[in-house]
Write the structure tokens for this entry.
Amino acid sequence: MNGRTVCIMLLIVSIMTAGCINSANRQARVAEDRGKPLVYASIYPMYDFAKKIGGDRIDLRMAVPAGAEPHGWEPTARLLVEIGRADVFIYNGVGMEPWVDRMLASLPGGRPVVVEASEGIKLLEMKGRDRHGHSPAGYDPHVWLDPVRAKMQAESILKALVQVDRDNAEYYRANFRDFSAKLEELDRLYREALAGSGGREIVVSHAAFGYLADRYGLIQIPVSGLNPQEEPGAAELVQLAKLLQDKNIDHVFFETLTSPKLAETLAREVGAKPEVLNPIGGLTRQQMEEGMDYISIMKQNLETLKRVLDE
Ligand SMILES: [Zn+2]
């Protein structure tokens, strides 16, 4: 054996040892924190899916705080450091969290295990005018609003939890089975309720419902320039009135309750009623405390859709 071969062998051994130490460190860390992996989720739907699977055996935190608007949100430097120390980091991807790419580039290797929940899922394109406030990449980021795709996202989360905490793998798998049964039930409810509504158009103030519409045969028409708490300008009202008249539609879906004044203006000027469809991108603290979650809001959304489309 010459000196060079010995050197290479030593190098290989030291790389292998480093790998072992890394994974041993993670295990040790998990043990040190009362056995709970620290899991960061970027936005509410990722948080809710992780919560349903991780239950009380993970220390779960949400990056975008309750009540904050997830589009255009930016983390503090301190939060980025905290996320860097987590065992798992979950994000939706498709440009929903533009800050993540920069963060990942700055993280040292080895931690956390990163889950891009939309990876491998068939994406829908987003038209130019709907991209306002969204990723310029051309794909629609609101993947979670289709229960079938939501289940795929949940499965990616499951894999990461099992990877960092094998001791609780069976617990995570059982929770995932329960949650995916609920998602399948939700999908069935939507299919049944909207079976007769194929091709119907819904007018929305935020182009978040592309995947939902695509899954259940609806057509989403986003109107820009509508804010639930502000009165639209005269030009927007004229445009909206013409659109609703052309399509024979008498509703506009907002993300949150509209101000009574806006409701009045809409009724008077364009003969439309404001309704609420929640895109579940972020919940308020109160909504979270009341026990609302992805499944319950999706059911509420379905009831609203059905009522409006049946009217
Ligand atoms: Zn959006």
Remarks:
- The pocket of zinc ion is lined by residues 71, 134, 142, 206, 208 (CB under 6 Å).
- The longest strand covers residues 38-41.
- The CA atoms of residues 87 and 111 lie 6 Å apart.
